[in-house]
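Subject: sequence -> structure tokens, single chain

Hey, anyone have a minute? Need the predicted structure for the following. Not urgent.
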Amino acid sequence: MAVASAHAANSNAPEGDIENLTDGFHLLIDALKLNGIETIYNVPGIPITDLGRYAQAQWMRVISFRHEQHAGYAASVAGFLTKMPGVCMTVSAPGFMNGLTALANATTNCWPMILISGSSEREIVDLAQGDYEEMDQLAMARPFCKAAYRLTYAQDIGIAVARAIRSAISGRPGGVYLDIPGAMLGQVMDAAEGARSLVKVIEPAQRQIPAKSAIDRAIEVMKTAKRPLIVLGKGAAYDQCDDLIRELVEKSGYPFLPMSMAKGLLPDTHPQCAAAARSMVLKDSDVVIMMGARINWLLSHGKGKQWGEPGAKRFVQMDIEAEEMDSNVEIAAPIVGDVGSCCEALLKAMDGAGIAPPKEWLDAVNSKATANMAKMDARLRNNNDPMDYHGALGVIKDAINDHPDTILVNEGANTLDMCRSIVNIHKPRHRIDVGTWGVMGIGMGSAIAAAIETGKRVLAVEGDSAFGFCGMEVETVCRYNLPICTVVFNNDGIYRGDGENWGGGDDPATTVFVKGARYDQMIEAFGGVGVIARSPDELRKAVYEALESGKPTLINAIIDPAAGKESGNIGNLNPQSVVAQRLYPQARKD
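Reply:
Had a minute. Here:
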């Protein structure tokens, strides 16, 4: 593409030929667009300010955030939702490091993302000559992503972008880093030659067909099942083979347990959903089929009391990464391939194989789930003032039931743990949360990406502590007029708002925030709608109005400071001090 840019004065540009030239800025934009990438999430600054302007001038959507970490979280969620790498663009050094957290999170969650950061010239970095924001960013990025590349010459942009896209999407998806020294962007070359240097990536994520022997082995294991269970993971949601997953679950007749971001692959109200009997099915099942789910800390590594007697279970695991097998427990039937291809092969092999769960098992699971749901339902119908978590989440549950096409974003401690077990999701990829690492602060970036990439309304349910990491992005929500309703569960602190200073001094407890904080007034400063809700009735009115209006809204939901528990449902990960329990009575109250 021929350009007349700010770089017309470049000494490499022949006089009179500017209309036939291009530069690194425009080649990078053209390479992204050629491969279907139309949105960039970024924070402008040296040396990428003009890159964002030029991208916008070429009809790309450039969403500017207040902090690079949240731009990166948005890019990673865009990758999860679209199966194409979301692109985050940052400035050098501190900006790059802010984005690096999100890049590592994307890699851990197996979401495709490309972090593009401006940087100092290689020769200056290598000699440590003290350049502006000098840092060996390529070396720093490598441990935290699938691949990392540095561009030195404008003519290599096409192949570099192609490699980044293929690396991010192929096999097990993840994050890729692309380092662009500022001087490279200003390099000028012949426009026709530049166009020929661009590369369109052909089928970057080819299907991986499982071996027949693996399918046959899985069928033999399934034939022995007396108490079978299917566990659906976010890898299955990412694959977007929703119809095949539903067909396999229903054809098998097995109860299924969705991990949090797999909720909605089949509706949580589906008769085979065992989410309400989670403890029972994990403990008592004898054959477990893992579909795009890893046996990691979120499932107690497949060990311990949660899983019943050691060695009593046989696992069938389907995953695109062979190294995932046997990571914590022995896998009796590993199936290596993408989830869709694995499902398709299993469905064919099940014909005439006599795969069916015993009626006694199904009846026991249904009975337990029904009893647990009835017990929970009574707690969700209170109208306490101030609210407890159950009353508030009862409203959120109703709101999603009545607006099933709304995407739910959720983070926090108690807010997260209780929401994922209470609120039903009805459609695939309509729940986004903290993922594998349990990272706090993903909320606003995730909500913005969900709104941008899908055009749907978003309900972000945030703990007040989690919101503190990303709350300034409500300005971004207002600036782009996005249909996002944010509900902050405000209990005045981390985990609880009634903590005490164990030393008895004037400083507040380490877990306590300002009492009565008016989070609702934050969004009003940027032109959005702020509401304070002290009871479930008030919360219901505010949430329904926000979802129906589509206006940027923040609801400050006042939760009893005494509600919640230390560390939510993962208090076992918080080391306990025997000495503290002897010296401080407060240490024993939870």
